[in-house]
Design brief:
The protein is an alpha/beta fold. The protein is built from 13 helices and 15 strands. It has helices at about 1-20, 20-40, 80-85, 100-135, 205-215, 215-220, 250-255, 260-265, 280-290, 315-320, 325-335, 340-360, 365-410, and strands spanning about 45-50, 55-65, 75-80, 95-100, 140-150, 150-155, 160-165, 180-190, 195-200, 220-230, 235-240, 270-275, 295-300, 305-310, 335-340. Helix 1 (about 1-20) runs parallel beside helix 4.
Length: about 400
């Protein structure tokens, strides 16, 4: 009786802990008893095992076939002997006899966990894989278990996830038992089961944190158009609004900066620039270089290059520490950005102008060529002067001939 109670308890515990269907557990238990029985009888008998939920035990049955002449005493029984058990039996029928399975049930109870794990491992892995594959790109909270070859192993409840070294934030330190939030980036099925990969450095981590903090983003009123990060240091996020009455930047910042501050706290002080997104690449680049003020923008759309001019006192701000600000802006816009100060731009223009003048001087004809040109001009002028004299003479002759004509007309 105690064994039956223990068996019932073992089944209930496995169902609860593993979250496996009760029928699967009972089938595995039956298989455990049957395996133990076949091992004892050296597979010489036709046995079946069935779990009885009422009694809470696995019942073992031996089946023999009714024959006229017995050739295998373990699996056959003659007709006369069979009719002593069941008077209506006929040749070819199968008779079942219940065996004492107490010993086998005890063995099954002891090995149930191992047998069930072997039997349902694939089903359990598939369940976990399907559950977490639907949660890809979702932020999840877990508990740090241990470090293993640089990876941080995180307990998610039903599964264990890995946070690789390259996906960990710089200067973050965790100890076993600490709670951690990360985004699920990948779920792989391996021979050891589902492998869940987490990240705290992926740009989507930042986007999802804002989605959790800003209701307008979750509702689709405010849209995140682009995100770039230098994890643990600085990030830029471009947002736009589908409602003209809603300021996307203000919605993300929140009252007195409460919303963005929550995100900054989660990312351990990572600075976040929230900028308005624009289809105009020049305007978008100016926004992306914030907080620096831009004076001029020259756009080469074919090569995706932007030449940006800023005031001299804004140059270091536009470039940022170790070029971080301009690097993030370039990644955000998808363009190469060249930044110049106004004084350098003016010097470049003067140099270009001087170069242009010098080029013109080089193109002036040589002295001999100039002389030949002058002679040619003089020759042309002489011809034109002669033609002018002839025209003048013709004009004079015509003027002199005019009175004679008038005299003839008078006559």
């Amino acid at each position: 009786m105690d064994t039956n109670i223990n068996l019932k308890h073992a089944i209930e515990q496995i169902v609860k802990e593993k979250g496996i269907d009760r029928q699967v557990v009972m089938e595995a238990m039956e298989q455990a008893v049957l395996t133990a029985a076949n091992k004892k009888y050296r597979n010489t008998r036709d046995l079946e095992a069935h779990y009885n939920p009422d009694s809470g035990e696995v019942e073992l049955f031996e089946f023999v076939t009714v024959v006229e002449e017995v050739q295998d005493s373990y699996k056959e029984i003659d007709l006369e002997e069979a009719r002593e058990i069941d008077p209506e039996v006929e040749v070819g029928d199968s008779l079942g006899e219940r065996l004492d399975a107490t010993g086998f049930t005890r063995i099954a109870a002891q090995t149930a966990k191992q047998v069930i794990i072997q039997k349902v491992r694939e089903a359990e892995r598939e369940t976990i894989f399907n559950e977490y594959s639907d949660r890809q790109w979702e932020i999840i909270t877990g508990m740090v278990r241990r470090f293993e070859k640089g990876e941080l192993l995180v307990d998610l409840g039903r599964a264990e996830a890995a946070l690789p070294t390259k996906e960990q934030m710089p200067r973050e330190v965790y100890r076993p038992g600490d709670r951690i939030r990360a985004i699920i980036t990948e779920i792989r099925m391996t021979t050891k089961g589902p492998q869940i990969i987490l990240s705290r450095t992926h740009p989507s981590m930042l986007a999802k944190l804002f989605e959790l903090e800003v209701p307008e983003i979750a509702e689709g009123i405010v849209e995140i158009n682009a995100v770039v990060r230098d994890p643990g240091s600085r990030a830029k996020i471009a947002v736009s609004s589908n409602d003209s009455d809603v300021d996307p930047v203000g919605a993300c910042v929140g009252m007195r900066g409460a919303r963005v501050q929550n995100v900054v706290s989660e990312l351990r002080g990572e600075k976040i620039d929230i900028i308005p997104w624009s289809e105009d690449i020049a305007r978008f680049a100016c926004n992306a270089l914030s907080p620096a003020q831009v004076s001029k923008v020259f756009v080469d759309e074919d090569n995706r290059v932007l030449e940006i001019v800023v005031a001299d006192d804004q140059l270091s701000l536009a470039i940022g520490k170790r070029g971080q600000n301009v690097s993030l802006a370039a990644r955000l816009t998808g363009c190469r950005i060249d930044i110049k100060s106004e004084s350098k731009a003016a010097e470049a223009e003067l140099a270009q102008f001087a170069s242009f003048d010098g080029t013109q001087g080089e193109e002036e004809p040589a002295a001999d060529e100039t002389a030949e040109g002058a002679e040619a001009v003089e020759g042309t002028e002489a011809v034109e002067a002669a033609e002018a004299v002839e025209a003048a003479e013709v004009g004079t002759n015509d003027a002199a001939a005019a009175p004679d004509a008038e005299e003839k007309q008078a006559e």
